[in-house]
Amino acid sequence: MEESTAPAVSYGLRGRTFLVTGGSRGLGYAVTRLLAAEGASVAICGRDSEALARAASSVEEDFGGTVVTGSVDVLAPDELEDFTVESAARLGGFDGLVANIGGKRGGGLLESTREDWQATWELNGGHAVRAVRSALEAFRPGSSVVLVSSISGWKPRFPAQYGAAKASEIYLAGALCQELAPYRVRVNTVSPGSILLPGKSWDRLRQRDPEAYAAYAARNPNGRLLNAEEVARVIAFLLSPASEAVNGAHIPVDGGQPQAGLGAGPAVSERTGM
Ligand SMILES: NC(=O)c1ccc[n+]([C@@H]2O[C@H](COP(=O)([O-])OP(=O)(O)OC[C@H]3O[C@@H](n4cnc5c(N)ncnc54)[C@H](OP(=O)(O)O)[C@@H]3O)[C@@H](O)[C@H]2O)c1
After folding, report:
1. How far is the CA of 91 from the centre of ligand 1 (A)?
2. Which of 164, 197, 166, 161 lies closest to 28, judged by CA?
3. Count of domains in the chain?
4. What is the pLDDT of residue 8?
5. Which of 160-174, 188-202, 227-241, 258-272 has the lowest mean pLDDT?
6. How far is the CA of 182 from the centre of ligand 1 (A)?
7. Exposed/middle/buried for residue 216 (C-beta within 10 Å: 0-12, 13-18, 19+)
């Protein structure tokens, strides 16, 4: 994957506790590792309990600390809410939350169903709202919420249900930061650009058509796609007291991809080979 060359930075998160939804792999796993490396304890959830157990033991082995796991499908009623409450009790409350789970269902407007649109909302903005609401009583004053949106949330692209659900997260940060001000809870959104992750669409394109991948990577201002660690660092900053003045903000973390005229990526047909 793309190597990070950034020097180590301390975010001052030692002894703090966080919930990261979808912390078993991808960006959520990178955030979990960074928080644990800082000396924080983390609760993570996802559907695959074996992947969660592997992630937790690897993080605990590398950094110590506590990683609480819970097998949760955010499309199933109450599982996310139950895990949020149980993990808050186990960690003694939260200093913040990263609503990282995301995804899409269905294709274009004429192919996708009402269920696809509802599920896509639940996977993104919907789960974020439910996580924040169920964690609210557990947040200590000064807590910070980060919603993981996407470049697709403000650079419209196919399929519309994904971008619309991601745009909702940008909106939610602005609206919820006002509503949660009395609790002294901040809410911000990060919008990653294209991240190169093992086994995911960019990696598959790289394996299948290295030239197409290299051409796309070269069009990015820094000549490559993002790695998960550099997005995780911005999230850690937003969770930290160093970002106390940042609230209700939308922060693109895309290496300047849109300024180079790139949206969320090449056309779907190029990415999937369909
Ligand atoms: N990758 C990119 O290039 C990119 C770019 C822009 C924005 N983003 C956004 O960044 C976030 C993370 O993306 P990623 O690529 O790292 O995702 P990922 O590799 O697909 O990982 C997603 C995590 O969420 C969990 N998850 C997925 N569906 C779930 C469900 N129904 N219930 C509970 N857990 C579920 C997964 O575990 P299980 O599968 O075991 O459930 C996994 O831990 C998403 O919000 C995504 O939209 C990603």
Report:
1. 24
2. 197
3. 1
4. 76
5. 258-272
6. 31
7. buried
